[in-house]
Amino acid sequence: MATSARQLFKFIDIGANLTDPVFRGLYRGKQAHEDDFVDMLKRAKDVGLEKIMVTAGCLKDAVEAVELVKKHDELYTTIGCHPTRCGEFNENNDPDGYMNKLLDIAAQNKDKIVAVGELGLDYDRFQFCDKDTQLKYFEKQFEMVEQLQLPLFLHSRAASTDFSAIIKRHRHKIKGGVVHSFTGSKDEATEMLDQGLYIGINGCSLKTQENIDVMCSIPSDRLMIETDAPWCDIRNTHASAKFVKTQFPSKKKERWEKGLMVKSRNEPATIIQVLEVMAGARNEDIEELANVIYENTEKLFFGKDN
User: Fold this and answer.
1) What is the CA angle 126-130-134, rounded to 5?
2) How far is it, in rounded angstroms, from Cα 257 to Cα 278?
3) Which of the chain's ends, N or C, has fewer CB atoms near its CB within 10 Å?
4) Residue 88 structural domain
5) Residue 237 burial (CB count, 10 A)
């Protein structure tokens, strides 16, 4: 049980990597503890999570994510290729074939796929995919965007100039979107907002005071909230830690205990901590902020016209 004198809020986690094996107790191929996926979902519901968007970053992820979300009413997924995985388009020298497989999955699972993504640019990790390949297949995925008419789940890391240029070039095809796990500057946030995009905030978005100041500069009607689990937890060394009120008992994976979180493995329930930081730093009413963010997300990804 989380420790906090708090009320229940409504949440939609726009980004959680729930196909990661750690949620089945598997770490680097070794079974460290029992599969605790169901317990993890219960903890999420207990803090008020109504929907979770499972992040798919490649064809393999999409296949696994669709199979997972079909089993749980509250789970949905994205469809696309992460910039660090864009080299997969060149496998078998058939980029059109790769994208067509993604489109087939989307066509067969319309009720469970709510966004195209994760797509974008990541100039911090060229060791996984070079710049030219990232640029080429970020652009190519707008063919999929145009066909599916879904909002975008976007990734931009150290690439704001090129990212913004591509968004502007394809703006007429875009039915809204969010730049998730945002860690950029105030100027970069303004550029995203000027393109009509929302900005997603998680623990990685709140590590430093500069990060927090950027978050505070974003209008509440353009914010979304996420965990990016199993990563991006809020740690005691982060500037955001002083705003956290809700704590979750945890143990190291080697000493796993049913009902407790796994230490250093982030999960959707900690979205309450992200909200606490956002409301505390912005000096806003936490319930009002939660409601605005929920409505932002509901409108973009789950609106009747999507």
Assistant:
1) 110
2) 31
3) N
4) 11-302
5) 7
Half-sphere exposure of 169 (CA within 13 A, CB side): 12
231 within some domain: yes
Does residue 272 lie in a domain region?
yes
Amino acid in position 298: E
How is residue 230 written in tokens? 């199993």
Express each pLDDT in 37-89 by its tens digit: 999 999 999 999 999 999 999 999 999 999 999 999 999 999 999 999 999 99
83 within a domain of the structure (yes/no): yes
Q: Quick check: 117 and 111 in contact, CB under 8 A?
A: no
In the structure, what pLDDT confidence band is assigned to residue 157 with cuts at 50, 70 and 90? very high
Contact 141, 81 (CB under 8 A): yes
Count of structural domains, the chain: 1
- pLDDT, tens digit (0-9, with 9 covering 90-100), for 197-217: 999 999 999 999 999 999 999
What does the alpha-carbon distance between residue 139 and residue 135 come to, in Å, rounded to a whole number?
Answer: 6
**Residues 88, 65 contacting (CB under 8 angstroms):** no
**Rounded-to-integer distance, Cα 275 and Cα 270, Å:** 9
**Could you tell me which of 225, 185, 206 has the C-alpha nearest to residue 277?**
206
How crowded is the C-beta side of 241, counted as CA atoms within 13 Å?
7
Other C-beta atoms lying within 10 Å of the C-beta of residue 228: 23
Based on C-alpha coordinates, what's the Rg of the chain? 18
CA 128 to chain centre: 20
| Sequence-separated (6 or more) residues with CB below 8 Å from residue 243 | 276, 277, 279, 280, 281
Q: Which residues contact 12 (CB under 8 A, 6 or more apart)?
A: 49, 50, 51, 52, 53, 224, 225, 294, 297, 298, 301, 302
- Report which residue type is found at 179: V
* 118 cis-preceded (ω within 30 degrees of 0): yes
Q: What CATH number should be reported for the domain holding residue 269?
A: 3.20.20.140
Distance of CA 249 to the CA centre of its chain: 24
Tell me the residue type at 234: I
Q: How far apart are the first and last CA of the chain?
A: 36
